[in-house]
Write a structure and sequence with these properties.
The chain has helices spanning 14-31, 38-57, 60-69, 74-84, 123-133, 148-157; strands spanning 33-37, 96-101, 111-116. By secondary structure, the protein is mainly α. Strands 1-3-2 form a 3-stranded antiparallel sheet. Helix 2 runs antiparallel to helix 3. It is globular. The model has no long low-confidence stretch (mean pLDDT 84).
């Protein structure tokens, strides 16, 4: 009797399928968008919504659940909880969008670009915009402090 496994199989066993989804989702979170097949995008969209809902709760237990899902990758957990979720506070679901692309050459697979439904404003971009506008104060102009090594060399030479 054939085992009844929920969802898409992708010709993989359970562990390989889980690793595929984990890597697709972490790449999506870190880069903000990914280009993949339509079937893979549809397979991970629901999981991304669930992870965003978990991150919105902003509890220690939620961060531990996220850390367990991403195999302890702190960079992905930080990006999701501290950078992406604040931009998605107004969304109650449907935080991803699949934009159709031309078919892939070779096997003509249907391709999509998976991206966030809202624009994610990252802290680095905000800092660059402020710097470009001139909001950031210039550092003080003056003498640079002498290093201890340079002073020690002078003492030895005398």
């Amino acid at each position: 009797m054939k085992a009844r496994v929920f969802g898409r199989h992708f010709s993989r066993g359970g562990g390989a399928r889980k690793a595929l989804f984990r890597s697709l989702i972490s790449a999506f979170i870190l880069n903000g968008k990914i280009e993949t097949t339509k079937a893979r995008a549809k397979a991970i969209q629901g999981q991304v919504d669930k992870l965003v809902a978990t991150a919105k709760k902003d509890t220690i237990a939620g961060r531990r659940i996220l850390s367990a899902f991403f195999a302890g990758d702190r960079k992905v957990v930080f990006e999701l909880t501290d950078v992406i979720v604040p931009s998605l506070k107004s969304f109650s679901g449907g935080v991803t969008r699949a934009v159709p692309l031309p078919p892939r050459k070779g096997d003509a697979a249907k391709m999509v670009r998976l991206q966030w439904a809202a624009e994610i404003i990252k802290k680095e971009k905000v800092a660059e915009v402020k710097k470009a506008k001139g909001d950031k104060k210039e550092p003080k102009k003056g003498k640079a402090p002498k290093s201890k090594k340079a002073t020690a060399k002078k003492v030895i030479r005398k």
